[in-house]
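note to self — DONT lose this again. spent like an hour looking for the file last time. sequence + predicted structure for the chain T wanted, 230 res
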Amino acid sequence: MKLTKLLALGLVVGIAGWWWLGPVVNGPRADADATPAVPVPPPADPTALAAPTRAAPAAMASSAAPVAPLTLAPAAAPARPADGSALVLPVQGITAAQLQDTFTDARSEGRVHDAIDILAPAGTPVLAVADGTIEKLFNSDRGGLTVYQFEPGGRYCYYYAHLERYADGLVEEQTVTRGQVIGYVGSTGNASPEAPHLHFEIHTLGPEKHWWEGASLNPYPVLRGEQRLP
């Protein structure tokens, strides 16, 4: 009788043990209310992470519309006569933008300037503004060393004053060409030594063709190419 009870008790213990130990072997029992575990993806390929991405910039470059370069309109150049009658600036290295209109400036004894002054360092070459002939080389109290040049047609006289010296070999009745050196900037006459410059005039000659007289024309717009000689 005792043996039968012991066998029955062992059978119960064995069944209980199987029921209890079975889930442990197969893993923890799932909780129905627990959030399902999210699978963790395998780690990325290290070589793929290290490799720089080049495709995206190329795609962006190919899809972007080409941008036209910015083009600035060139500054309008001063109008110049087409017949070649434009005058050369009489001081080497000076541009038209550097000229100042001093034609109507007042001078001593109630005079008007009737010329423009072109400032430049002493010794700067002075150029013949056009083809022509050296009519007179003259040294005056006011103008210092001066040159009177006639143009070939005899209509105009070009007057250069306050020269430091004449070009070597320059003589009266000599033919000169446009742009030829005829002298050098200075401060002779009544010019200030502290401000060497070329005093330049244009005269319309009368029928007498006197180098010392004529109607003055403003050289400023002519030298700038804005106006031609009448």
